[in-house]
Design a protein that fits this description.
By secondary structure, this protein is an all-alpha fold. The protein is built from 12 helices and no strands. The chain is about 75% helix and about 0% strand.
């Protein structure tokens, strides 16, 4: 495999890792960068290209697990946090995550074919970037000055479900899973940091499940011919996601969502000029 192709894998891994957990939409950026510039399908073929996107997503998932490993183990009662017992009763646990992810999982399965066939286009990403930005601006403007939920352990099952309903908006490529869930969490009384933590934790089973489904669907396309391409993409995605998560979690309580909303609007405007003019 040529160096230029490995460089493309590095770039796509960078895009996935840097944007997966920031509220700017990794799917939207992957569509923009790949469809408008790199065009990996032209040398990989459609199905191997889809498999590659699964691989780089797995790199991002691993980064979340590494950063939040204590909370991940605490979810199943294997690690104590802040003096908690190892029992999952009475604090944030795996059931909160299941309740939160359920709406998007159900709708995702119901409308997967429609989404794949009609929404994975740059023009639809533009609309989603704008819609997501408006929701994020609304969340910052309407958020209570003193959030009631300043800890993951204060999240109720009802609150987790309501945030999960808002997360369904992220099924629209370009809207952003983290943008939708953080905005929903903030609007429902979470602090920005708690909403971000909940978002990242909930992303792991959702992304892992989606990746598993995609792997099974594209199993026949797996080939050692592209191993180097996959490995570079995976490592790139993992490293840059690791940096992105740590940076974002340190930043979100200070800058909130507005800078990311502005970025989305600027990006949408630039894309609209390129596509429609």
């Amino acid at each position: 495999m040529e160096i230029i192709e490995l460089l493309k894998a590095l770039i796509l891994g960078f895009v996935e890792g840097m944007t997966e957990f920031a509220p700017v939409s990794s799917t939207g950026h992957m569509i923009i960068v790949d469809d408008m510039w790199l065009k990996t399908e032209e040398f990989l073929g459609m199905y191997p290209a889809n498999t590659f996107k699964i691989v780089v997503q797995l790199g991002s998932i691993l980064a979340v697990v590494v950063v939040m490993w204590k909370r991940m183990l605490n979810l199943v009662g294997l690690y104590k946090i802040d003096g908690q017992s190892t029992s999952v009763k009475g604090h944030f646990n795996l059931l909160h995550v299941i309740v939160g992810m359920l709406p998007a999982v159900v709708l995702g399965f119901a409308f997967k074919d429609f989404i794949d066939d009609h929404l994975f286009k740059v023009e639809h990403v533009i609309y989603a970037l704008v819609a997501g930005a408006l929701l994020m601006i609304a969340a910052d403007k309407l958020a209570p000055k003193r959030p009631k939920v300043d800890s993951l352990d204060k999240i109720s099952y009802g609150l987790a479900f309501k945030v999960g309903l808002v997360q369904c908006l992220s099924l629209w490529p370009g809207f952003s899973r983290s943008g939708a869930t953080i905005s929903g969490g903030v609007l429902f009384g979470m602090s920005h940091r708690v909403a971000a933590d909940f978002t990242f934790i909930m992303a792991v089973p959702i992304m892992a499940g989606a990746s598993l489904v995609s792997v099974l669907k594209n199993w026949d396309t797996l080939s050692m011919d592209y191993l180097g391409f996959y490995v570079v993409g995976f490592i790139s995605s993992f490293v840059f996601a690791l940096l992105s998560i740590k940076f974002f979690l340190a930043l979100i309580s200070k800058v909130k969502l507005m800078p990311f909303a502005i970025y989305r609007l600027v990006l949408a405007a630039v894309l609209a000029i390129i596509i429609f003019m």
